[in-house]
Specification:
Layout (H helix, E strand, L loop, with lengths): L2 H8 L34 H10 L1 E4 L5 H16 L17 H4 L2 H10 L14 E10 L24 E4 L2 E4 L2 E6 L10 E2 L31 E6 L4 E2 L10 E9 L12 H5 L3 H4 L20
Antiparallel strand pairs: 1-7, 2-9, 3-4, 5-7, 5-9, 6-8
Length: 297
């Protein structure tokens, strides 16, 4: 078999802009380094498989102990003493937390599952940041409430969709959770593996947080959880009386879609490196390549 035929056999057929022609993925360009100049960490084949089949992926211990401690301390100041932080920095995009926006592991994941290849370059991300918030929970805080699922059948404008062809999957609204304190047994977000592809209504047992239909995770501080918002998931009450939950919940989306009523501080975005600014460019598909230098103009 020729090399060209072998390439055609192993490459998913993704439609280009028009006429049903195949998008040449070998000609697409994704950033190989983030805004801080750190090399992007691509997903392994096993990680791609796990996320596609389960709808969620946990990567433990991404941050060092010192990084997690610095970011946790900033999160605690946001929660308890926001006046100690300059006004423009009072969000999960400020201070040391800004490094999480396009962390090399985040960019690697988004390049695979969320980015729109024709609107991606070395100096422009092919996806956008949708929202970001701090989740602070002490023992007893939090409420169980299952939601979402069945992403194969969502109306595209909903953005809670999940599309697949053999060899390639694409998620719309995608959640990234940075756990800045350890998550022990009985805590953290609950997920129903595979429910992003579910064709049947959820069973009644979904309303029991102790049902085996739910999956959970434990992890050290500095771990990151990815899950598609088309996955059925739920919060639950935090039980750890020794440490609170300090987590940054962020959402990413395709460049032409917006779900949340949220916008970052324009002054803070304008102070970011140009590549990071492209995560906050206008929401559209046509001619939406940017080097970030014209944000807010």
């Amino acid at each position: 078999m020729s090399t060209n035929n072998q390439h055609a056999k192993n490459t998913p057929y993704l439609f280009a802009h028009s006429l049903g022609q195949q998008l040449d993925m070998s000609a697409q360009e994704f950033p190989s380094a983030n805004a801080d100049g750190k090399p992007v960490v691509n997903l392994s084949q096993e990680q791609k498989y796990l996320f596609d089949t389960r709808g969620w992926l946990l990567i433990p211990g991404v941050l060092s102990e010192d990084e997690a401690a610095e970011m946790r301390d900033f999160g605690l100041r946001l929660q308890h003493d926001p006046d100690s932080i300059p006004e423009q920095e009072r969000s999960t995009l400020g201070g040391p937390l800004q490094k999480l926006i396009d962390h090399p592991v985040v960019v690697g994941f988004m390049n695979e599952f969320v980015a729109f290849p024709p609107l991606s370059r070395q100096n422009c991300y092919g996806f956008r940041m949708e929202s970001s918030h701090l989740f602070y929970r002490e023992a007893g805080d939090g409420k169980f409430g299952p939601h979402n699922g069945s992403g194969f059948f969502r109306f595209p404008g909903d953005t809670h969709f999940y599309h697949s062809v053999p060899g390639k999957s694409h998620a719309g609204l995608t959640r990234v959770v940075w756990e800045l304190n350890p998550v022990c047994e009985g805590d953290g977000t609950l997920v129903v593996s595979g429910s992003h592809k579910a064709a049947y209504p959820a069973p009644e047992s979904i309303h029991d947080q102790n049902s085996p239909v739910w999956d959970a995770y434990t992890c050290p501080a500095g771990s990151v959880l990815f899950f598609t918002e088309s996955l059925t998931h739920s919060a639950r009450p935090w039980t750890n009386r020794d440490v609170p939950r300090v987590a940054v919940f962020s959402c990413y989306n395709t460049v032409d879609s917006k779900w949340h009523d949220w916008d970052p501080d324009p002054g803070l975005v304008a102070s970011m490196p140009p590549l990071r600014q492209t995560l906050f460019r206008p929401v559209r598909a046509a001619n939406n390549l940017s080097d970030g230098s014209h944000y807010g103009v």
